[in-house]
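Dear Dr. V.,

Thank you for agreeing to look over these. As mentioned in my earlier message, I'm a first-year student in the group and I'm still getting used to reading structure tokens, so any feedback on how I've presented them would be very welcome. I ran two proteins. I've put each sequence directly above its structure. The first is here:
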Amino acid sequence: MNLSPGQTLGHYRILEKAGAGGMGVVYRAEDTRLRRQVALKVLPAAVTASADRLGRFEAEARAVAALSHPNVVTIHAVEEVGGVHFLAMEWVEGRTLDRHAREAAQTGTGLPLDLFRRIALPLVSAVAAAHARGVIHRDIKPGNIMVERGERGELKPYLLDFGLAREQESSGLTLMGAVLGT
């Protein structure tokens, strides 16, 4: 499903398309009930037709909702409206780490060590918190890390997209020999 600015999905008003990935399209939207901006991750219809893929989507929601960490994006709701399945999540205003890295590469200097440290250390804490709750991300990459600049200029990284996450207690691979993630 392709949503356009101004359209609604339940009580969410679409503001813009923010991105797309293997497990869905992300939109910036307004939660008209709570009057706040959120990110909606909408699953494509082809994915919801697959019990396995829909299960992974729901597992993402459970995995992330179980976490409470300042560097893990917060899940507000898992919803389905008119056959459209989606997550409503905290909206993070920032840029992905891969974009930061591309810009640094263009300067020929790479990411300064201090910047790397200010991003990496909170992410290590987020991954440790996830592991402590039995959640394995399985797709940590620069495109799944959003970096937001705070009011005082400080950087705050967020670990996003737990679409391939699994709980440690689960049986592991879903297909014999399958490798998921990056």
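The second protein is here, in the same arrangement:
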Amino acid sequence: MRQVYGFTKQAMTAAAFAAAIVVFASQPIRAQTIIEEWASVQAPAAPALKAVKVEPKTTALLMLDLVKQTCNAERRPRCIASLPKVAKLLADARAHDMTVVYSLIKSAKLEDVLNEVAPKGGEPSVAGFADKFIDTDLEKILKDKGITTVIIVGTAAHGAVLYTGSAAAMRGFEVIVPVEGLSAESTYAEQATAWLLANAPTISAKVSLTKMDMIGY
């Protein structure tokens, strides 16, 4: 076997391997998945809220799953707390002759929409799962009315709001999400939804997070 300065090549390889093990062992061990790192994760800075101005004729207000099965004091008290502000936004939209579209969960009926924000005057509705564009006429309803922008409120934040908002952005709509109008079982779910809508690739370019008093007509 070839020798180099009195050492065989095999011995030198073994020595290098052993040295690498020592160096590796001296380094701090990092967690391999987000589960191990969970407790050490710090929340990022809050997304910036933007003032927006909408054209009522080409804007629709989407009222997502505000039904008694999903918006109640036992399951989502934060949804109940959001209703007065959502009701005011709804009144403003109607005052400006804006299109209003409701969504329901599959097990709900239109009469299950809470009284404070109930539909009137034949306002259209669709029934579906988290993404309200899937297996519904939502896209057709919007395009038939010439809608290019949607304002989205409802529950759950991490369900209907996140997935319908993302799907609308992917279909080319401008998406406005007033943060007082999304609700979930926990603040964490609402925070995660806001962050994802504001930062997700492709989607974030079409999404504006705002507050209801920052929406102009």
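From my reading of the second output: Residues 1-26 have pLDDT under 50 and may be disordered. The first strand starts at residue 3 and ends at 4. Does that match how you would interpret it?

Kind regards,
E.
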